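[job 0412] stage=fold_complex status=start
inputs:
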Amino acid sequence: MPEGKRKSRSQRRVYVRTPSSKSVLHYRARKPSKAVCGTCGAVLKGVPRETPAKLSKIPKSGRRPERPFGGKLCSACSRKIIVAIARSE
Amino acid sequence: MFEVGRVAVKIAGRDSGRKCVVVDVIDDVFVLIDGDVRRKKINAKHLDPTGEVLDIKKGATHEEVEAEFKKLGLPVWNKKAKKVLSKPTKQRKVKEKEEEKPKKAAKTEKKEEPKVEVPKAEPKVEEKVPLEEKKEDVKKS
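[job 0412] stage=fold_complex status=done
writing structure:
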């Protein structure tokens, strides 16, 4: 019988084949949801879907696009905002 | 679409939101830009034109663009200097240590000289003593 914390399905279940050809059940942490644009809700490209512990091992430039609003807005929405800022000056 | 000298705002890539100037028009698609951005060939779709036009020649150098941007009071992108590798500096430190050793020896020689002066001061005290004795002699007499 699994432990209480493992019955709640907060961790995902993975069947792993061992060297002795047994299949055993492993429990792994679930990944967070995909990053989405703050205005249009589109899934962001160039933003890895990893747990915070793994993200800290990735360089900062690998975690989000290197442009203003990178990792917060999609490229189309950020372009609209940058043009609006430039023309308001 | 873009003529040489047209000031524009870059709206794509890591330099987006920064001002630049068209230095060269390569064809109807690509232009060469410089200013507050990395100097490079880009698609003209990635630019948003402004009303300003600078007086620069076709293919102007970065220094010429920098001088024109200073008149407008705009910042200019400049490459950061590369850091020197750590290995050669370590080798230099070893050489410095070898040079320091003779210097320390020279300092110790200098310290010996004031020591010689100290015994010179002592005989002066001895000279005073006989004077006092003489005075006492005078009083006694």
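[job 0412] summary: Chain B has a mean pLDDT of 78.
[job 0412] exit 0
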